[in-house]
Amino acid sequence: MSGSHTVPAPGIDYVEVEESPRFQELKRRHRSFVWPMTALFLIWYFVYVLLSSFAPGLMAARVSGDITIGLVLGLGQFVTTFAITMGYVAFANRRLDPISAEIRDDLEAQEHAA
Questions:
Q1: What pLDDT, on the 0 to 100 scale, is given for residue 11?
Q2: 103 neighbors 22 (Cβ within 8 angstroms)
Q3: What would the pLDDT profile of 42-53 be if each residue is shown by its tens digit?
Q4: What total of structural domains would you count in the chain?
Q5: Would 10 be classed as within a structural domain?
Q6: CA atoms within 13 A on the CB side of 26
Q7: Residue 9 covered by a domain
Q8: DSSP letter string, 71-114
């Protein structure tokens, strides 16, 4: 069968979809949120870890009663995680979902036409 040529089944050319301007815009918008947020959170996290290791006196400083700066910053890590998640959901709903819906609708139309 060395000379045989198979014709691909009709369907969606996903490489073409991935290279389309709308999909590229979707990826660009996604990266515009994800990379800066990831960088900011990692910096914030490593500052917390470094302060815990190299500034134990600061982290042990009392804010009120038994509540220390270290405890407040540690709990702030959780608050930040939830805030970023809520921010991403709002961002995705507003800036990503409309484009993804268009792309999905076009793909479904192509699939039904095939």
A1: 77
A2: yes
A3: 999 999 999 999
A4: 1
A5: no
A6: 18
A7: no
A8: HHHHHHHHHHHHHHHHHHHHHIIIIIHHHHHHHHHHHHHHHHH-
